[in-house]
Amino acid sequence: MSSAKGAPVTEVQALIGTWRLLSFRILYDDGGVEFPMGADAEGLIVYTHAGFMTGALMQRGRPKFSAVRASVAERGIGSADEIVAAFNGYFSYFCRFETDPAQRKLTHRVIGCHLPDWEGRTLERFWQFEDAGDRPRLALRSAPLSINGRPACNELKFVREPDVLASGVGA
Fold it and tell me: Around 39, how many Cα atoms within 13 Å sit in the side-chain half-sphere?
C-alpha cells in the first residue's frame, strides 16, 4: 500500500477513511450463511485519525411510515409495527477504537448505539485487506460469538470510498 505521494502506508493508516458496505453476513461454524440485513444491505463505516469509528447498516426496502416525520423530535409518529420494522432493519453505533497490528485486531469501545445494551461494550474485529484492483477492500470479522445458540462470526466487507475533498473534487 502507498499514499498518493507514493510513500508506504501502514495497514493501520490504511484503515482511516470511509468504507462503503459490500456485504454483511453471518458465517456459522456448521457451514450455514445468513444475510441478517438482506443480501443487498447498505452501510458505511468511518475510521478517523482521532481514534473514533462510526458505522451504520441498513436493510433495503424497509417499509415507510404512514406519516412523515419533519424531525427526530417528533416521537409520536409511526405505528408499533412500523417502528419495529424500522428498528430491526437498521443498526448503528459509534466508538473509540484501538488497533493491534500484530493480530490485525480492532478493539471497539462502544460509546453510543441504537441498541442501549451495547453501550459500554468492548467488541473485537479482525481486519484483512483484499486486493481488488482500483479501490482497496476491507474485510472485518467479529470474534467468535453465539447467535441463537449457534457458534458463528459476523463478516462485513467494504470498499474504500475516495477522499473527494482531499483531492479537490467537491471542495
Answer: 1
